[in-house]
Design brief:
The structure holds two protein chains of two kinds. Chain A has no helices and eleven strands. By secondary structure, chain A is an all-beta fold. In chain A, strands 2, 4, 5, 9, 10 and 11 form a six-stranded mixed β-sheet that branches. In chain A, strand 4 and strand 5 form a beta hairpin. In chain B, strand 7 and strand 8 form a beta hairpin. Chain B contains no helices and eleven strands. The N and C termini of chain B lie far apart (about 35 Å). Classes of the chains: A mainly beta, B mainly beta. The interface between A and B is medium-sized, with 25 and 25 residues.
């Protein structure tokens, strides 16, 4: 099983609809979760971070976290063509190297979202 | 947030040669990470660079092929050595600073698009 798995894409939604992106993870002790957006040919940019169970809203974006089910999702309301991009789910995995503990991000394979007018 | 300047942005290199990619952060950061992203794929972590210690490499990546330097808290380099066409990819550097109670998001450089001919 992959450490971080996203719903298979690509996902196509009409403008104004809600886009739903899902992610499951295998490391039960993970505490931090991130959604990144990556436009073609660009580097990833952070959209949302979430640390606690429940919903977190920021404008048109809502992240949802359920640690018991090891599930994190991103909802995009009123989708716009400019939202068309690849969305990457990232899970913080704690590790230890040389006596130093730190978190490193493990990324899902990404979901390509297309919002058509 | 942190602003990361990565260079070169792209390069075309002859097989058998080496390329060093540089990353400069506008503030001190705890950890820097180097990723590889094949076309249409997600991010694969190559190694983690902690100032003052040797880099920690992920499975499948070795120091002889990808030597990394981290001379201070704002700078890191990745060298792709003895290149072959299979090394053609986008290389991304990333930086994180850790707060006591939360793991912060990672910021990314603009990426280096490497083509080996």
């Amino acid at each position: 099983q992959k450490e971080v798995e996203q719903n298979s894409g690509p996902l196509s939604v009409p403008e104004g609809a809600i886009a739903s992106l899902n992610c499951t993870y295998s490391d039960r002790v993970s505490q931090s979760f991130f959604w990144y957006r990556q436009y073609s040919g660009k580097s990833p940019e952070l959209i949302m971070s979430i640390y606690s169970n429940g919903d977190k809203e920021d404008g048109r974006f809502t992240a949802q976290l359920n640690k018991a089910s090891q599930y994190v999702s991103l909802l995009i309301r009123d989708s716009q063509p400019s939202d068309s991009a690849t969305y990457l789910c990232a899970v913080n995995v704690m590790t230890n190297a040389g006596g130093t503990s730190y978190g490193k991000l493990t990324f899902g394979q990404g979901t390509i979202l297309t919002v058509h007018p | 947030s942190a602003v990361i300047s990565q260079k070169p942005s792209r390069d075309i290199c002859q097989r058998g040669t080496s390329l060093t990619i540089q990353c400069q952060v506008d503030s001190q950061v705890t950890m820097m990470f180097w990723y590889r992203q094949q076309p249409g794929q997600s991010l694969t972590l190559i190694a983690t660079a902690n100032q003052g210690s040797e880099a920690t490499y992920e499975s499948g990546f070795v120091i002889d092929k990808f030597p990394i330097s981290r001379p201070n808290l704002t700078f890191s380099t990745l060298t792709v050595s003895n290149m072959s066409p299979e090394d053609s990819s986008i290389y991304l550097c990333s930086a994180r600073t850790y707060r006591v109670s939360l793991d912060t998001e990672a910021f990314f450089g603009q990426g280096t698009r490497l083509t080996v001919v």
